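Lab meeting prep.
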Amino acid sequence: QVQLVDSGGGLVQAGGSLRLSCAASTRNTNMFAMGWFRQAPGKEREFVAAVSWDGSNTNYARSVKGRFTISRDVAENTGYLQLNSLKPEDTAVYYCAAVSGPPSKVYRNEYEYGYWGQGTQVTVSS
């Protein structure tokens, strides 16, 4: 069983930055690919970014590419999402997720993920 706790959200002005963290409860997450998703009020949850469990591959939604960076610290069992140049349309609850799979595979589909954090609110003011 893997438990994920995501944190780091907050209120920030447009153009600002935040770093979200996703702490895993078990060292076995070294072998789990990780992803971040977000859900804005009245909208469906959408893919944001993903990283393979060996760290060799990443993938980003077009709307965040070049502004957000996904990473992971294997020693700390923690994943990160750096959010730069934030826009009001980035306002949402952000969720981290984990899935076991091949070392270099990234996952964009939320239904492929078996473990989820509780979500952290990001609010960007204009």
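Slide two material, second protein:
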Amino acid sequence: QVQLVESGGGLVQAGDSLRLSCLASGRTFSRYGMGWFRQAPGKERNLVATIMWNGGSTSYADSVKGRFTISRDNSKNTVYLKMNSLLPEDTAVYYCAQDRSPWRMTVPVLADFGSWGQGTQVTVSS
């Protein structure tokens, strides 16, 4: 049974930085692509960033390119999201997710994710 536990959210001011972490357990972490998603009140859940199982490739939403960086440490079963130059519109609940299939040879997309964390709130004040 996959468990994903996010941490690192909080209340910050515009322009600040945060680093989210997601600790995974239940499966061999290094075999699976990972992703970060976010959902603002009244809006659908959207992909923020994804990373292949081996860290070889990443993908970002246009709205966060150049500001956010996804990375992973397979020795710690953890995926990170470093968020710089935060904007009020980045305010959302951020979710970590894990690919359904191991060793996928492409960066996973939304439909590929089958396990989700409980989310961590990020609030950016102007």
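Talking points for slide two:
Residues 88 and 124 are 5 Å apart (CA to CA).
The chain is about 0% helix and 55% strand.
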